[in-house]
Amino acid sequence: PMAESSLNSSVDQTYAEIVVVRHGETSWNAERKIQGHIDVELNDAGRQQAVRVAERLSKEPKISYVYSSDLKRAFETAQIIAARCGNLEVLTDPHLRERHLGDMQGLVYQEASKIRPIAYKAFLSNRTDVDIPGGGESLDKLYDRCTSALQRIGDKHKGERVVVVTHGGVIRSMYERARPKARNVDKILNTSVNVFRLFDGDKWRIQVWGDVTHLDQTGFLKSGFGGDRTSG
Predict the structure, then answer these.
(1) How far apart are the C-alpha atoms of 37 and 201, rounded to whole Å?
(2) Is this structure's pTM higher than 0.85?
(3) Which Gene3D superfamilies match (predicted)?
């Protein structure tokens, strides 16, 4: 049928269209606790957000593949999306994990400066090459890790629309890769939709940024904790 072919041709062969989605809310997001690599699952609000974004994506042009960070909060969100978009399998990639936040992980954000002052100072540093004590990553390491992961996915899926479910800090790095001269990004909310087009020659373009219209009716537009510099 006509409709089917016009949907499939929504993506030009010269680029991959990658729908980057932040995971749904977790109880730690709601409590303003720093997750990093700690494997916290979605809470009920987060699951409902995931259903909303999945419904939305199922009505948009066809998704070929769903990739996800291997941390539960992203993987659960991705599974809900994959089920709605044609019972797709979720392909996990640890390179899509949140930034490792070292000694900050597990702390309530407000208390971090008192409990781990050195890690907190490193975390707030404007320098991108500062590692966070306790095995944490610098912003440069995060950037290299997650932008090369997205580039690999883009190279593999020219002419297709794929979903990548990941984390606030990761999406921020991807934004910087696409718009290096832009000012700092606002909060990246849970289940926000961010559409990137990756062209030949490493060119990245943002088509849609920070779209949470699927959450309008829900009262789920929570603080977006973890979607700003606090990561997680």
Answers:
(1) 32
(2) yes
(3) Phosphoglycerate mutase-like (3.40.50.1240)
Cα 216 to Cα 72, 148, 192, distances in angstroms = 25, 33, 12
85-143 pLDDT, tens digit per residue, is: 999 999 999 999 999 999 999 999 999 999 999 999 999 999 999 999 999 999 999 99
Percent helix, percent strand, percent coil in the chain, to nearest 5: 40, 15, 40
Give whole-number Cα distances, 76 to 54, 130, 206, in Å: 12, 31, 25
| Full strand arrangement of the beta sheet holding 15-22 | 90-92, 65-68, 161-166, 15-22, 193-199, 204-211
Between helix 72-84 and helix 44-59 the angle, nearest 10°, is: 40
Catalytic residues: 23, 98
Tell me the per-residue pLDDT of 165-217, one tens digit each, with 9 for 90 and over.
999 999 999 999 999 998 888 889 999 999 999 998 889 999 999 999 999 76
